[in-house]
Amino acid sequence: MDIALPELPFPLRPYGPDGDWSYEGGVLTGVAGARQDRFVTPTGEALDTPSDAPRLLGAPDGDFQLVARVTVGFKGAFDAGVLYVHVGERAWAKLCLEYSPDVPTVCTVVTRGHSDDCNSFTVDGSSVWFRVSRSGRAFAFHASPDGERWTFVRLFTLGDERETGAALVGFLAQAPTGEGCVVTYDRLEFRPGWPADLRDGS
């Protein structure tokens, strides 16, 4: 069933395990169950399909920026709230506020067949602002402590422009090792276009 958020010009649909998604008063809430994650290990173990976690995704048109403040009820190692980009079953990316493994950390995963895993910097507290942007075939991840001054985290692509133009974008909650966690997303904002400069803090 599609979910319409007033801040977004496109509907959202749940994917993967049940995330008990809800929206009230400008706050989107998702719940990860025990040992739910989305990751394709790069270390040699043969997996036919990625592991999975609750996702709520939609299909924006053209170039855009999706902004949200992410707050995670951390309980176990690698619990995370995520802004997520999906192009295909083995082509997707995560911008995570993750307990990695016992300190809140901004980290990213880009999956092209198999996943990579990169920690960027630690965060004070359980909240951070995230922004995912698209221009043509390119995606950019940014993070901010206040939604004003943005730190460039990653620039990447998941395929050609035909593929990335049909990308799904939205939200994911995960609890890879623990018994589950609750993630909230507020201060949601959708902006057309690409940031003027990826690295100047704007």
From TrEMBL:
Q: Which InterPro entries match?
A: ConA-like_dom_sf (IPR013320), DUF1349 (IPR009784)
Pfam families annotated for this entry? DUF1349
Tree of life domain: Bacteria
Q: Which residues cross the membrane?
A: none
Q: What is this protein called?
A: DUF1349 domain-containing protein
State the organism of origin: Streptomyces parvulus
